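Our consortium's second objective concerns turning raw sequence data into structural hypotheses that experimental partners can test. To show how far this objective has progressed, the report includes one record in full. It was chosen at random from the queue rather than selected for favorable results. The single chain below, 34 residues long, was entered without modification.
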Amino acid sequence: MTKMRKRRKPEQIVKALAEGEAMLAAGKSSAEVY
């Protein structure tokens, strides 16, 4: 995550995290999300 944060804007990070949480809520494993 650290390397990606250098090139991504705060808005993109928040959106990515929100999508990740949505995928986890849908029942997917953390391996599929990341």
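The partners drew two points from this record. Helices lie at 2-5, 10-25, 30-33. Residues 2-26 form one domain. Both points have been shared with the crystallography group to help prioritize constructs.
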